[in-house]
Specification:
Two copies of one chain form a homodimer. By secondary structure, chain A is an alpha+beta fold. Chain A has helices spanning about 5-10, 10-25, 35-50, 120-135, 155-165, 165-170, 220-230, 255-260, 265-275, 285-290, 335-345, 375-385, 400-410, 435-450, and strands at about 55-60, 65-70, 80-85, 105, 110, 140-150, 175, 190-195, 195-205, 210, 295-305, 315, 320-325, 355-360, 365, 390-395, 415, 430-435. The first copy, chain A, contains 14 helices and 18 strands. The mean pLDDT of chain A is about 95.
Chain lengths: ~450, ~450
């Protein structure tokens, strides 16, 4: 059976297997899911054992890494495929149409936490490896696989491992599917990502919650203080006000701006996906530039006081916030983290104390020229899988590992993503288009096969 | 046995009975506690049956009212005693030293939700009625009692009842113990209260939670919008910026300001109770004026986005706030509610929709001259109970029923409160001083006895 026939005739098996994988609630940020995360790692390892001679589940301080390799022909190139088997928390649960960890097909999509970010996309590669191995008897090139379980929480164990295992991970290219397509029917190769710093803080005013009648009018309210603080983070043009924040931002070339703004993409569709009454972004930049090429300051969570039913007349003792900065070349995550913390501490009034400020994770941005022949191979493979010409795009999300591998090995990083912007990665009703899932398997298998002949 | 001896010799019985009462988690705002609230009403009714010939538990749309009367001597005055048997929610539970609904004695205090607000203070009167009835064979004056179960949620059923039962409630004076003493060892009669409007709102931006990488930089963030909104509610002098907010605020007389600022009260003690690094209040007014005589705008709860462990890179679809305005004479709650809603709706940018704005409750402020002989009787009774001269104070909290009764019957409202400012009404570790509880029983019993001879 040839490769295409194998893939076509195994659609049901692949989909059933993906559903098994998705059912495991591998939420890396929650202590209560630690055993599930471990189970997901074992599931990946077992699957890899079908196509790889060497497979390890590597324990770490937090969640295990899965590593596999098939190095059987020194005359062929070696690629490192990277992905993650951990997922975002499913909350708020009540907004899911079908339960977050019950894979459900609806309208040509598969709904489940992790379906598009990133277990579904990892499985595209696992299915492609299987198809290549079954039809060729071996993989067409040398392949290393590294699947981590901490992508959604900062990848600390991954970096620790990478630091001590550089020779083991060396390859001629890095391959990742954790990004998206520009739109339905537009297969895409991503050549730029934003970096991400994530912060959390707690401020304390009164020693304990106070009665707003007895004390109101003479005491600081930590919620009001947080509001006044975060109201200062953007100016009227939606520039971030952190001093020095834009100092290292590399200007976009005219050619790149022109290319990005000419992509087959409609603001109307973006606006529809977002669903807000109006959009809101940095003045002087197009939407594509705002989300792919400009840094941001974003509140991800903020809370304090009474959040229950009815009324409680309380002045809260404390208030909390979680927030993040997306970074673009050539911003330095360490420098930005220092600037943000300093600015925020300086802005706080002396009526409250900053009782906690933590930078939970830091990650560098990445952008690379797409001139290497592997990029062309990726474009051809995508055209094969989808029957449409692939475009080159940047993306607003963050995969710090890509930057890290690029900086370490100076090799091309091929980001072939199969998600769509409205597929709710990180939100309720996350899903993947079944057409893109099956097209992805075809494209990826062809890509690996093609590299064997480049 | 005379009255004083009876009270002294029944300290243990009274305290044991109060603990029974406090154990019932009569949280009026929570649907899950509906049966407990009903149980608390029955408990009060049963206790009243010992001293009153007529006792009713009156069903309402929400929580029952308890009414009792003993009208046995037309030559004596009639007082209406009002209190409430419902309590605030106990959350956050983890901040209680002993469980919120297990009455616990520590350092001369009794800790429990409701101990000071208001079940403990209601029980002071129930114990006083019992002592008077047991030692005199009957109450020394005519007494009506009305104890409600919705004080912490806006008293809607109470007002409904009052509207239809004015003759039933008519009395020569209203007596309430739901306020505080100026400080330890300073028994106090309160002659002014602030009013309270309570609001909640929801704003919606994106149609659902969005990935802050894929979308961040081009979409409105409801949390940021709420921050920007509430940062505008105060100017740099901490004046509330709602247009017209101060239009109807009656100026304080020089004499009253002088009297209030001469009370035996220390800013140092207030600051210690609050425990914040610095205080914060409206410029041009003393702390006493800020919390008793000036209106406020206060955030009571605000939330949105991810509030769990670790990181989630989300732009939330919605954000929520609960907030309140404390009102002073002659502000009109209806007018203020309209001004606040209009101002907030006008301030919201067109990037979000205000998907909910509710005024949960409205309550008028109250202030009255303390010239009636009953005020002098209260002062004498407090001196009897505490061995110290009582002072006349205002208070920052709200008891809308007082205003209502005052407006309806034009009779003196005698507010003898036995709470202390640091007893955490509405907060974890709520407690009442046992000295004030026992002193209160003595004072209140003497007050009712004295009114029989005025």
């Amino acid at each position: 059976m040839n490769l295409t026939d194998y893939i076509e005739s195994h659609r049901n098996e692949h989909l059933a297997e993906l559903k098994q994988f998705l059912k495991i609630p591998s939420v890396s940020t929650k202590a209560e899911n630690k055993a599930d995360v471990e189970r997901a790692a074992q599931w990946v390892a077992n699957k890899l054992r079908g196509s790889f001679s060497h497979v390890e589940v590597i324990p770490t301080k937090m969640h295990p890494l899965v590593y596999a390799e098939s190095l059987h022909d020194a005359s062929k190139p070696t690629v490192l495929f990277y992905g993650h088997y951990d997922v975002q928390p499913p909350e708020p649960l009540e907004l899911w149409t079908s339960p977050a960890f019950e894979p459900t097909e609806r309208n040509g999509n598969l709904y489940c936490r992790g379906s598009v970010d990133d277990k579904g996309q990892v499985h595209i590669h696992l299915a492609a490896f299987e198809a290549l191995h079954k039809t060729l008897g071996k993989l067409p090139i040398n392949v290393k696989v590294l699947i981590e379980g901490e992508e959604e929480v900062g990848s600390e164990s991954l970096y620790e491992f990478v630091k001590g295992n550089k020779p083991k991970l060396k390859a001629d290219a890095l391959v990742v599917s954790d990004t998206g397509m520009l739109g339905p029917g537009v297969p895409s190769v991503t050549y730029g990502l934003r970096g991400l710093n994530y912060y959390q803080m707690e401020i304390s005013g009164p020693a304990q919650d106070l009665h707003s009648g007895v004390f109101g009018g003479a005491v600081p309210n930590p919620l009001t203080v947080l509001c006044e603080l975060f109201a200062k983070m953007h100016d009227k043009n939606f520039h971030v006000t952190v001093p020095g924040f834009y100092d290292d931002v590399a200007a976009l070339s005219k050619a790149e701006r022109k290319a990005l703004n000419s992509l087959p993409w409609k603001a109307k569709d973006f606006k529809k996906t977002v669903g807000a009454p109006e959009l809101c972004g940095e003045k002087g930049f197009s939407i594509v530039e705002q989300v792919w090429c400009r840094p941001t300051f974003e509140l991800n969570g903020l809370w304090g006081g009474y959040m229950g039913e009815g009324a409680k007349t309380v002045i809260p003792a404390k208030a909390w916030a979680k927030f993040s900065t997306r970074l673009v070349p050539d911003q330095d995550p360490d420098r930005i983290a220092k600037q943000v913390e300093k600015y925020i501490r300086n802005l706080l009034p002396n009526t409250v104390e900053c009782t906690m400020f933590e930078t939970l994770s830091k990650g560098k941005p990445w952008v690379a020229p797409f001139t290497h022949p592997y990029f062309k191979a990726a474009q051809r493979a995508l055209e094969h899988g989808f029957g449409k010409k692939a475009v080159f795009i940047r993306e607003g999300g963050s995969i710090p590992f890509v930057t890290d591998m690029h900086d370490t090995f100076k090799v091309p990083c091929i980001l072939m993503g199969f998600g769509l912007p409205d597929e709710n990665a990180h939100a309720p009703d996350e899903h993947i288009s079944l057409e893109n899932y099956f097209g992805g398997i075809k494209a990826v298998a062809n890509f690996y096969q093609d590299l064997g002949t480049v």
